[in-house]
Amino acid sequence: MAANELFIVTELPEGRPDRTGQGLLSYGARLSKMLDSSWRALVFSDLDQDAQQVFAGYGVPEVTLLKDAEHYFDTPQRLGRVLAGFAAEQKGGIIAFAHNDLGCTLAPLLAAHLDAALVTEVNAVSCSDQGLHLSRRVMGRRIDETRIWPQRGFLVITVPVSALSPVSLPTDAKTSLRINAYITPAEAQLADAAPNCSVIVERIPPDPRTVDLADAEVIFCVGKGCDHADFKQLSELCRLLGTSLGVTRPVYDLGWADFDRMVGRTGRCVKPRLYVTFGVSGSMHHVGGIQEAQQIVAVNSDAKASIFPNADQGFVADVQEILPRLLEKVRTATGGNK
Ligand SMILES: Cc1cc2nc3c(=O)[nH]c(=O)nc-3n(C[C@H](O)[C@H](O)[C@H](O)COP(=O)(O)OP(=O)(O)OC[C@H]3O[C@@H](n4cnc5c(N)ncnc54)[C@H](O)[C@@H]3O)c2cc1C
User: Model pTM greater than 0.85?
Assistant: First the structure.
């Protein structure tokens, strides 16, 4: 059954799709193939050459810029109206978001405006003569629920970020990208349409000391090879560098950090850009929680420690020798009073 068009709503933080956005484009390429449908990406700001290459790399045939939509980033209800205005001019189809902050906000708004079917956190899609089967986990993720959309009108979906992989299929056609624009209604018109909308007044980066470790960008992890003085030095280092502090189970057991700072299979599974371990042996229980770290750097005095085969870079060194020197350098570089 050929489906209607597929629209992938892609955010462009810092001008291009991030890992989640790329995952969503990869998802769009696969889903459009499965549905044998045309597809395009919807974006809220202009694409430079580099960003265009990213889209083309995922075989995106067409990008529609919702022009001036960025003016409504602080008023999600109006942004929802912009999208609905665009969608109302289409024949129908599937509009997909990542299940992140933007997707969770816009998907229900859009579905309400369009009188569309809404299925959130879709983890599997398949087709039959009855329509499109969409599966999701419910009841605290204990039950798999499947819904059928009869492929009429619009369907709005969100896809869990954890289900999005930025890997592009080798079979994805590298297309020449078509870019067009949808002119959003004048602000006054939207203000009339949603006079009571809430307005976002502040956005600040999360505090690395309190951010959920699962979302932390850079983590320094303290292992049992550190004594309490080392732990204090590493805490200061994290404060000065704006990185997050994690611990292994024995360090948690010592009471130096709360449970939410413990990394590993029992603790938090993390996916930082950089994960640096100090005096961590690399047990399977710990390493099991850091598989998705992009880069792992390990410091351990034992060259045979099992953390090393799991690390991208390893330093055989005594933390008690290197930490004071490292801290001194960072204090000098940062003025030491962050
Ligand atoms: C069911 C179960 C669940 C578990 N879940 C978790 C979990 O979620 N997270 C977790 O972390 N653990 C977990 N554990 C514990 C886990 O098995 C390990 O015991 C733990 O990860 C080891 O922590 P560590 O590396 O800090 O300590 P150790 O294994 O004691 O390693 C210390 C390391 O420090 C090095 N070292 C010593 N002195 C220095 C120095 N001066 N300079 C540099 N290096 C030095 C040593 O060479 C050694 O490799 C779990 C265990 C069980 C049974």
Answer: no
